[in-house]
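EI: anyone free to look at a 329-residue chain?
SC: sure, send it
EI:
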Amino acid sequence: MTVSTVAAAAGVSTATVSRVMNGSTTVAPDMVQRVRAAAAELGYRPNAAAQGLARGRTGTLSVLVPDLANPYFHDVLKGVTAAAGRSGYRMLVADSEEDPDDELGLSHELLRQTDGLILCSPRMPRHDLLTLADDSHAVVCANRLAADIDLPAVTIDAHAGMTSLCHHLARLGHRRVVYLSGPERSWSNQERRHALDRAAAFGLDAVAVACGATMADGHAAIDAALDHDPTAIVAFNDIVAFGALARLRERGVDVPAQVSIAGFDDIPFAAYAAPAITTVRNPKELLGRRSWLLLARALAGERGLEPEVLPPQLIVRDSTAAARDRGNL
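SC: here you go
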């Protein structure tokens, strides 16, 4: 079925059919009605890609995430999908597989195929972000602030979230805390470490142990963490906390009687772990929705958009309790 077939059935030119299908307001109402009636009778559906080319827009946005295996990003994507869908946009998703050096190339490839890009928790170095900002005005950063780089951003206040968690542990009597550190180039990881460094002001002695962002990373890091004789362990995210819990169980360490453990993000599974994980809830779907709204404003030509910072919430569950006496592990 082609435009020519519809044009012949409606008794108009192919140019008129194209204008009607593209929503032009320059066609007479009676002619619009004839074209739409003919298209409906023939079962004609316009080619979305061709319409996008004609309008200079594809009606598609892209989202680049560092790890699709992490449920955190599923909720962010749900938020983007819901908000963008109401504006008639569809979403293309790509996974950088935690490779910061691959993100810039993937970003350029996605921008060639879509109208705009949401970078979700990007790990790329600063100079790559600068390059991207110079190359396109249709890019939004979700969960990373980059000072003096003209990229709109929506973030979670990771520093405030970690500070609230540190206060919680200090009130329980914890002093020696090990942080299972996330990816080195993760902005949110850097913010959390800054908060831990400042936690010394209210009595916490925090030590960072290199870890990562996956369950396997959490499992592998526990032996090194226990060498510091902590009464509490804070994981970069809930996925890392799951791996840490498994290794603590293998070593016969009772959580929380001997060691408390906490995560970050509040993914859906955190409430159903054994024990249920104390964590910091990030408004993930809201992050996705707000990211799309910023991107829509950028696509409309707005510039100099101010970053938006969303508040986290401490969620206390069974995996944290009063600190044990040091040396009893």
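EI: Residues 66 and 98 are 5 Å apart (CA to CA).
SC: 👍
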